[in-house]
Amino acid sequence: MLFKKRLVSLSLLTVSMLFNAPIQANSGVINLEELGFAQLQQLVEEKKISYQQITQFYLSRIVELDDRGPTLNAIISLNEQALDIAKQRDALRGANDAHNLLYGMPIVLKDNIESADNMPTTAGAIALANNYAQKDALLVERLKQAGAIILGKANLSEWANFKSTQSSSGWSDVGGQTKNPYVLNRTPCGSSSGSAVAVAANLAVAAIGTETDGSITCPAAHNALVGLKPTVGLVSVNGVVPLSHSQDAPGPMTRSVQDAAVLLEVLTGSEPNRYQKFLNKKGLNNKRIGVVRNISEFNPIASQAFAKALEVLSNEGAMLVDNLVLNDQEALSQAEFDILLYDFKHDINQYLANTPKQVKVKSLAELIKFNKALPNSYFNQGLLEMAEQKGSLQSESYIAAKKLVAEKARLKGIDALLAEHKLDAIVAPTNGPAWVIDTLNGDQFTGASSSPAAIAGYPSITVPMSFYRELPLGISFFSGAHQEAKLIEIGYAFEQATRVRKSPQLIFSIDE
Q1: Rounded to whole angstroms, how far apart are CA atoms 89 and 95?
Q2: Pairing state of beta strands 319-324 and 171-172?
């Protein structure tokens, strides 16, 4: 790995550094694990704890669980100013009582999101080791305006898993291999691997990930989290290292639907309560939900858990419309791949050309040449090389692929299915069980349902569905463009009816 994390002095970490240990707060012993925004704010309101103590709690867990012990490798770099900022939040809180729920809350960013906090934005790549942003990405600016504390940057699959034809999710040349805190030798999925693990292992109260296809929903599901992938364009990608402008979408990764709604309001610059007002425990009542079997039956373990989840939906008042089909998935998958190759070449060339002067790689061609000179990188750069061979966005094949997506994924795909059956949403298992990490052979995917919404650019939410031998499984709901509020309502009602999430216990293996 290239970096040692910029850890604050251990003398400042006055809270306990023991796994599962409570902290000594102002009014006695308090355990902050699994607490969300509202619960933490209540403790501050009651003067039982300070924002500085909350920040110290997460920093101590990063030392104990990420750098030592199980070495989760979720965090690439830490904000040296985090404790000072928390102290400022404490000082200013009394002067202004009108605070957003994010005020003083420590948030982790996926390390393809720029922030002006003296942390490089690397996308996990050594080529961007000196990529220090001079200003915040727009979404980070909004987080800071709401009073959030940027705690650090999270590891990810290098270049958002668009580097190699054979890779291990959660691996980057900068951060090494991120581990799943539920079963340490199993994948965290990716590419927002560190973001998911940081929240699941209580290294931060919440995180921001990015998705092109499955990069929020898969790691969220593998880590028993809520992951919300918004409609493409709803959350700004300004200041985010790109993969594809056609499909990239930053979004919340949290331990609850409530916290995801809070984050989405801030990320989108929405008015307060824009999404929180849909946190309705009876939100499944009279909802029409489609079950699309050709995207749901990819794994027998997931299918068994999904059958029980469908019973929950029905018992909570949802009307299930079963045995539906989304056509043309194979053709759409090929179109998606072509679009991503064209987009990546165009978008990364633009991004690299505008990086600070200390970043020496200024084009995709230069990046490929740079990587060839690196020693000991585990994986090839086949996807980068394939992208470099593509032409411009005016190429006939690119235009044809974009047309196919507009017609088959949107108009005659999800849109038509929703309209024909008067559906509020479509449901599917998010994932199969996490596979064993293998940096020799790469990922062995057990199935996922992220592609239809991702290709269309439509929103989706994943919520914990069940556990299988200590491995989390998620359930996904998706719908048409800008239907985030409806998905939050459905996801919240399912979450409240099931309450599946539990903290990870750092089991090394379930195979011994």
Answers
A1: 10
A2: unpaired
Span 279-322, pLDDT tens digits: 999 999 999 999 999 999 999 999 999 999 999 999 999 999 99
Q: How far apart are CA 195 and CA 253, in angstroms?
A: 7
5 flagged as catalytic: no
215 catalytic? Reply is yes
Condensed to tens digits (0 to 9), the pLDDT of residues 141-198 reads 999 999 999 999 999 999 999 999 999 999 999 999 999 999 999 999 999 999 999 9
Residue from 115, 168, 191, 296 carrying the catalytic annotation: 191
Rounded CA-CA distance 415/410 in Å is: 5
Q: Is the peptide bond before 27 cis (omega within 30 degrees of 0)?
A: no
Token pair listed for 40: 């933490």
Location of structure tokens 């919340």: 252
**pTM of the predicted protein model:** 0.96
The residues, any chain, with a CB within 8 Å of residue 198's CB and separated by 6 or more, are 66, 74, 75, 108, 154, 204, 207
End-to-end CA distance of the chain: 29
Q: CB-side exposure of 60: number of CA atoms within 13 Å?
A: 21
- Does 23 have pLDDT greater than 90? no
Place of tokens 């999404």: 275
b vs e for 196-220, b when ≥16 Cβ sit within 10 Å of the residue's Cβ?
bbbbbbbbbbbbbbbbbbbbbbbbb
Selecting among 110, 144, 153, 486, the annotated active-site residue is 110
- HEC per residue, 310-356: HHHHHHCCCEEEEEECCCCHHHHHHHHHHHHHHHHHHHHHHHHHCCC
For residues 156 and 153, give the distance between their C-alpha atoms in angstroms, rounded to a whole number. 10
Q: Which residue has the tokens 């992208």?
A: 387
Write down the catalytic residue from 157, 164, 167, 215: 215
Q: For tokens 């906090």, what's the residue?
A: 117
Contacts of 475 (CB under 8 A, 6+ apart): 306, 309, 427, 428, 429, 430, 462, 463, 464, 465, 494
Residues 6 or more apart whose CB falls under 8 angstroms from that of 512 comprise: none
Which residue type sits at 501? R
Cβ atoms 479, 237 nearer than 8 A:
no
Residue 123: left if φ>0, alpha if ψ -120 to 50, beta else—which one?
Answer: left
Q: Which residues share a beta bridge with 507? A: 183
Query: Is 403 an active-site residue?
Result: no
Residue 12's alpha-carbon distances to 60, 75, 251, 329, 392, in angstroms, are 10, 19, 32, 53, 52
